[in-house]
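U., I forgot to send this yesterday:
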Amino acid sequence: MELQPPFRKIIHVDMDAFFASVEQLDNPELRGKPIAVGGGESRGVVAAASYEARKFGVKSAMSGVLAKQKCPSLIFVKPNFSRYKEVSYQIREIFYEYTDLVEPLSLDEAYLDVTENKKGNPSASLIAQEIRNRIFEETGLHASAGISINKFIAKVASDINKPNGQKTINPEEVIQFLEELPVHKFYGVGKVTAAKMYNLGIFVGNDLKKKSVEELTNLFGKSGLHYYHIVRGIHNSKVKPDRIRKSVGAETTFFENISSEIFMIEKLEKIADELERRMKKSDTKGKTITLKIKYSDFSQQTRSKTMEYFMQEKFEFFPVVKELLYQEKLKNSVRLLGISFGNLNTEKTTPIWVQLKFDF
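Result:
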């Protein structure tokens, strides 16, 4: 059976070792070293492991004791979920510049439907590359991506060239790709199901494809129908945007720490330009403006002020930013500055997104 157009263009973006990578970004002394977020030598489990730790077999959900046995030089780091959320929202702002059809799965991954996109770019692969470049330029973090005609294949594809890579499965490649794919790599097939399939002589997609829908339903219940469809490239689940934007912001991390407030004003001017662009792009205004300051010792401070009216343009809000900067003396040199708007005018009727279809 051949798949018939029109095809959607779906991107699955997956951050590489997200929690661990954020910790290494914020703490230069951890870069290049095997670290585990969470866990501990006596109790707890690993929430995330850096790629340096993964080389020793350290994985998420592994006990801290076992992780330390596998990698004696492993460094345990306490999770900082508020920081991970902050970076995650920054990354999502990039996604929304390309499409409003964004479905976050977690802090570190999301589906994007770019069939119709804000850039007018017909190539989903080029959009994925551009998004990954933007993420690195604006956050210093690497992301991988999978691109294909549906969410299922895009998610499987995003794991193929990790880390810091991407894989496109074009429409004409889908059937062969799925027939050759080991069943344990099918998204949703866990260890128990994979073992059951192996015992039944089902090792790759083509083996699965030989089973009738009745056989698969008898063997795997409701999941049997799902397996019957996905191995044939049929997965019609749409990207479901579910968001209320609570803030819009922009920030910059400096290559060298700065201590001059005059120099900081110059940097904030550029950040404000970017914030104004994002506010206009999203047709958003806000009342509460926040100045974010991260010091050279990695401590962080925010200063906020709520106005009586909604603002969007730089000439309106930048005097407030300067006021917040001079509000009190800085306690140290600064490595990051950011400006964000909260208390947004987003309490409005949810728009209905019309999904157009184009050739892939």
